[in-house]
Amino acid sequence: MTIEDVIDTYGDMVTRICIMNLRNSDDAKDCFQEVFIKLYKHGMIEDPDYLKHWLIRVTINTCKDYRRVFYKKTINIEDVLIQDEKKDYVLLPVILDMPTRYKNVLYLYYYEGYKTDEISEILKMNINTVKSRLKRGREILKKKVGEDDE
C-alpha cells in the first residue's frame, strides 16, 4: 500500500477528526498534512487495522499539539458539515461544542463504528473511562438537542 492509497482510504476520516478537534478548516488542513508526513517518516504499516488505529491516535495527538501552539477559536459550520452520503452529520455541530474528552469518544463510537474496547485501546484509556464518557456525552447531547427543540 502506498502513501497515496492510505490518503485515499483514510483521508476523510483524518479530515473529520482534525476538523472536530481544531474547529477550523485551515488548521485542519495543516494538521492533515502533518499526520501524513509523520506516517511517511514512520514508514508504511501493513496491517490495515493497526494502520487505522495508528492514524486516529496520531491525528488526535497532532491536533492537541497544534492547539497548544496555534489554536484559533473560530469555526465555520459549513466547513464542519462534510458531505458524505453514508453518514448523518446533523449532530456534528453539537458534538463540536462538547469538551474534547467526550467528543473524541462519541466520534469514534458513532461515526467510525468502534466498540468501547477498541476505543479504549486506540485512546489508551481504561475501558470504564470510555464507557462513562460515552454515557456522559450522550446525556449532554440529549440536553443540548432537547433545548434546540423548544
What is the number of beta strands? 0
Mean pLDDT: 81
Give the helices and strands as they follow along the chain: HHHHHHHH
Helix content: over 70%
Coarse shape: globular
**Percent of residues in beta strands?**
under 5%
Number of helices: 8
Largest sheet: none
Structural category is mainly alpha
Question: What integer value in Å does the Rg equal?
Answer: 15 Å
Q: Tell me the distance between the termini.
A: 50 Å
| Model regions low in confidence, pLDDT < 50 over at least 5 residues | 72-87
Structure explained in plain terms:
With 150 residues, the chain is mainly α. The chain is 75% helix and 0% strand. The protein contains 8 helices and no strands. It has helices at 3-22, 25-42, 48-70, 77-80, 92-96, 100-111, 116-123, 127-149. α1 crosses α2 and α2 (25-42) crosses α3 (48-70). It is globular and about 45 Å long. It starts with a helix and ends with a helix. The relative contact order is 0.12. Residues 72-87 have low confidence and may be disordered.
Q: What features would you highlight for this structure?
A:
single chain; 150 residues; mainly alpha; 75% helix
State the gist of this model.
This protein has 150 residues and is mainly alpha-helical.
Please render the helix and strand layout as text.
Layout: H1 3-22, H2 25-42, H3 48-70, H4 77-80, H5 92-96, H6 100-111, H7 116-123, H8 127-149
Helix pairs in contact: 1-2, 1-3, 2-3, 6-8, 7-8
